[in-house]
Amino acid sequence: MTSAPTNASQPRARRSRPLRVADAIKDWVVEQGLQPGDRLPGEAELIARFGMSKGTIREAMRLLQAQGLVETKTGPGGGSFVGEVSRERANALLANYFYFRDVTIDDIYEVRVALEPELAARLAGTLTEAQLGELEAIMEEYAVPATDAEEERRQHVASLRFHARLSDFGQNTLLGYFIAFMAQILTDLTVYKRLYTTPNHDLWQRGRAHQIDLIAALRHGDSDRAREVMRSHMLMARRLMEDQEAEVMKRFIAE
Amino acid sequence: MTSAPTNASQPRARRSRPLRVADAIKDWVVEQGLQPGDRLPGEAELIARFGMSKGTIREAMRLLQAQGLVETKTGPGGGSFVGEVSRERANALLANYFYFRDVTIDDIYEVRVALEPELAARLAGTLTEAQLGELEAIMEEYAVPATDAEEERRQHVASLRFHARLSDFGQNTLLGYFIAFMAQILTDLTVYKRLYTTPNHDLWQRGRAHQIDLIAALRHGDSDRAREVMRSHMLMARRLMEDQEAEVMKRFIAE
DNA sequence: TAAGATTTGTTCGTATGTATC
DNA sequence: GGATACATACGAACAAATCTT
Fold first, then answer.
1. What is the pTM of this model?
2. Do A175 and B95 touch (CB under 8 A)?
3. Minimum mean pLDDT among A60-64, B16-20, B206-210: which range?
4. Residue A11's pLDDT is what?
5. What angle do CA B79, B32, A87 make, to 5 degrees?
6. B9-82 matches B88-254 in fold
7. How many angstroms separate the CA of A78 from the C1' of C14?
8. Between 1.10.3720.10, 1.10.260.40, 1.20.120.530, 3.40.50.720, what CATH number should domain A88-254 receive?
9. Minimum-distance residue to D20 (CA–C1')
């Protein structure tokens, strides 16, 4: 997309050979317009082309592999192939960026409040019955109030999947990614940090009512109502989260 | 951050040794709660600890290096250190995700329209005079209408820097990152794809008027006005982009 | 300035593992 | 099962960078 300006800055300090080889291969892939699945030269040929040792070439391939740009297979017909960066990998890589920075749950909700209602408004009237059905199926996973903390977490993860799935249905890849990324972060927090341990029947009921209204608005193409319902839903969830207290992405210190 | 569930999925296909070593080191860093700048064991010690060859260890370090998680220096006192993923690297890594996916300029603007007005509203009344001065200094770079395409591009990059800088001033790291990422993508498009080649005095004047109004609203703590001005600004820019995109396309087809 | 110490960077030869035919 | 084609891994040696004295 942005055609990867590998050498954005110019005089840059001497880079190690693997780094330079990786850049060269990246540029070459862009130049050739290679597509995911296309084959890259094998180790032997790269060794010849760059005049470097096997170890150096292998380190270069690892650099590209870590970025999700290439995949390698052993055996006949094997080798390195252009890879499409998966959403999971992109999420993990981006999460690393925030690892040492302070991102609070409220920060996430502030963005969700701004983005998700717009998504809902855009989607109203555009979803197929199959897609609406899929969303309703997810809702079935929390049709009954949770009775313990474990089930509460499971249900919360499902409701986050509802939002991630919804974001997949839109045409805006960027918007969809941002929303899904936030849902992923909240899911990880729920699962690994054992968040959301206070089942609350009243909130559960109101949250579910929101989603039912949302589905109806989406089905009937009521854009404004979809926006408003989603907005209420986000604001309510946000207030609920306030109790969970800030600074979560910061410091985890295992138990 | 999400405490890096390195082995999120279970029985997963056999992973290569460098991959496993990299995971182990990552988990170890998390366990130890190491901070940026902290030293990692040297090659020699890792070779001993994992019982693997130098090449394997080095490939593992490359995997971590590509993710921005470690930095390496040669010489006495050198070695590998925990690194804080830079914004530039995070941007590049995330841009790779979108490389093979269709993200249109309009997609970007749809998200900007949703996010930037909220940022402006939040920032109203919180900026120091120094910060406001910095923004005004950037505006000076396009105080006079551009006379040619080259200057138009330069000015457009500067105005994108205005937005990126503004996003830095907020407290919300996540919101700030998303906004800055979009500004970066648009900047790359402007510079490398030679976009925005039709200076338009009328639009220039209106855009500049918006930013002047915005600064005033921010300075006087008028949150609602800041939101509205930013929203108008984004909507205008979005329309402008549609026209330019169309023109670029036409020109491209014509030749 | 120069020498020495320390640590990563790079090479080469060889051997092993793995998937396809 | 065997042959083939490819990546994976090891170990010893040497090169380069950089800090200290």
1. 0.89
2. no
3. B206-210
4. 47
5. 85
6. no
7. 22
8. 1.20.120.530
9. B76
Cross-chain CB nearest to B100 (options A36, A62, A101) = A36
Closest Cα to residue B154, out of B141, B165, B167?
B141
Q: Is the pLDDT of residue B249 over 60?
A: no
- Scored b (16 or more CB within 10 A) or e, A174-190 reads bbbbbbbbbbbbbbbbb
pLDDT digits (tens, 9 = 90+) for A129-172: 999 999 999 999 988 888 887 888 888 899 999 999 999 999 99
pLDDT at B253 over 50: no
Q: Which of A18, A166, A151, A112 is nearest to B61 (CA)?
A: A18
Kindly list the domain boundaries of chain A, sorted by start residue: 9-82, 88-254
3-state secondary structure A177-235: HHHHHHHHHHHHHHHHCCCCCCCCHHHHHHHHHHHHHHHHHHHCCCHHHHHHHHHHHHH
Helix axis angle for B17-32 and B43-50, nearest 10°, is 110
What is the token pair recorded at A191?
């699962």
Per cent of chain A over pLDDT 70 is: 87
Report the mean per-residue pLDDT for chain B.
Answer: 87
Burial class (CB in 10 A: 0-12, 13-18, 19+), A14: exposed
Q: In this structure, which amino acid lies at residue A110?
A: E
B161 vs A11, residue with greater confidence: B161
Q: Is B1–A98 a contact, with Cβ atoms under 8 angstroms apart?
A: yes
Distance CA A89, CA A86 (A): 5
Q: Closest residue of A to B87, CA-based?
A: A97
Chain-chain contact of B173 with A107 (C-beta, under 8 angstroms): yes
Structure tokens at A210: 């929101």
Closest residue in B to A170 (Cα) is B107
- B32–chain A Cβ distance below 8 A for any pair: no
Return the pLDDT at A12: 55
A95: nearest CA partner in chain B: B1
Q: Do A111 and B185 touch (CB under 8 A)?
A: no
What architecture does CATH give domain B9-82? Orthogonal Bundle (1.10)
